[in-house]
Amino acid sequence: MRFFYIFLFLLVSGTFVFPQEKYFYTGKDYGSQSLYNPFYLILNGSYDVIQMEGSDRKIFGFPYRNGSRNVLKNLSSPFGPISRYGWWKFLRNEILPLEFAKNRAQWFPNYQLHLIGGGMTYTAMKEWYEYNKFPYPAVFSVATLAGFHLINEFVENGSYQGDNVDPISDIYVFDMGGIVLFSFDGVKKFFKEDLNMADWSLMPSFNFHDLSLQNSGQYFSVKWKIPRQDNWHLFYYFGMSGLGGLSYKFKDGTAVSAGAGLKAQRRYIIDPKTYQMTISTVWNAGFFYDRDNSLLASVFFSGLEENAINVNIYPGIIKFEHFSPGLWMIMQRNGKLMFGLTTVYAPGFGFK
To answer: Which of 82, 99, 111, 233 could cysteine-pair with 247, CB 3.0–4.6 Å?
Structure first.
């Protein structure tokens, strides 16, 4: 605990002693950045996993008590679960990029979503608190990240009771590592200026009928400028999907991007004793329109049954005088539709 308090003190000191350049949040009132705030982050990040098919989306009925007890038990005494799991297996599967089989390469999402995505989110959230004049923005940012990452682990754990090394690697290695990594200006500048990294998460909304959470998901985009090309970038969109493709930037700051790849479909337990899991995947393709890296619209086509087509129109496209809502639509493979509306002030509502 002493290290934790020293760590927070250094973060707070750095917030006020040194001038802070804005990297990932600049207060844009349009697109995905207009929706960026702690509540949207918690809904998208905490419940990222429920976008998989067959998941229970009625978040108010989740077994949080059982999930939190088991996750906190494993976090409070990590060496026992790791020893029973196997130290070398833990390092090979969870930490080091040494395993490449889908059912053993748990390190891959750890680097993408927890180290890089989590580090970028720490910086963006700190900038959000600074922009909105909160005291101690670094502390608030760490608290927000800790909150939604823990809830995410509770949700993923569910009712299971027993050894679970996944939250140990996620939180102690990659989440904390991401905060440390993105505390260096050189790292932030690389991801901002060289990779144009941005948060392009979805627009979470509650279904009027059963208060289930729909259209949630935390996603990021990167664009790397192709040498000797003024407008073309290599494009990568990642989260529960991994899409690679190209992006073209116009002179007015808008850009169109397209990518294809895979999307997570379902989770499967492959070792009940250690709660080791893997996922099945399906094809996925996406098309995007943004301005200054703030996403304005996206369209996805996939091999999923429950989410065959997903359209998202962010605030800034449709306007009614000073009011600009976000709209989304999901079409299932059987033709059933769901619609949603959201605003910058509160999570949206969905309609079947």
So the answer is: 233
In this structure, which amino acid lies at residue 247? Answer: S
Instruction: Please list the alpha-helical segments (H only) found in the chain.
Output: 2-17, 31-34, 38-46, 64-76, 79-85, 87-90, 107-109, 117-131, 137-157, 166-167, 176-181, 185-189
Q: How confident is the model at residue 20 (pLDDT cuts 50, 70, 90)?
A: low
Q: What beta strand segments (E) does 184-231 contain?
A: 198-199, 205-207, 213-214, 220-225
CA 130/CA 240 separation, integer angstroms: 29
What pLDDT, on the 0 to 100 scale, is given for residue 322? 83
The Cα–Cα gap between 157 and 120 comes to 25
Dump pLDDT digits (tens) for 160-199. Answer: 999 999 999 999 999 999 999 999 999 999 999 999 999 9
3-state secondary structure of 346: coil
Please list, in sequence order, all residues whose beta carbon lies within 8 angstroms of the beta carbon of residue 292, skipping any fewer than 6 positions away.
Answer: 28, 253
CA dist 196 and 293 (Å) reads 7
Instruction: Please state the φ and ψ torsions of residue 39, each to the nearest 5 degrees.
Output: -70, -45
For the chain, give the mean pLDDT: 91
Structure-token pair, residue 160: 């299971």
Nearest to 174 by CA among 248, 97, 79, 104: 97
The enclosing H or E element of 326 equals strand 326-331
Handedness of CA 250, 199, 263, 296 (dihedral sign): negative
Residue where the block lists tokens 């094809």:
283
Q: Smallest Cα–Cα separation from 39: which of 272, 252, 204, 156?
A: 204
Beta-ladder partners of 298: 288, 312
**What Rg, from alpha-carbon coordinates, does the chain have?**
20
Q: Which amino acid is at 173?
A: V
SS (H, E, C) 283-306: EEEEEEEEECCEEEEEEEEECCCC
pLDDT of 7: 46
Distance of CA 329 to the CA centre of its chain: 20
Q: Which helix (H) or strand (E) holds 322?
A: none
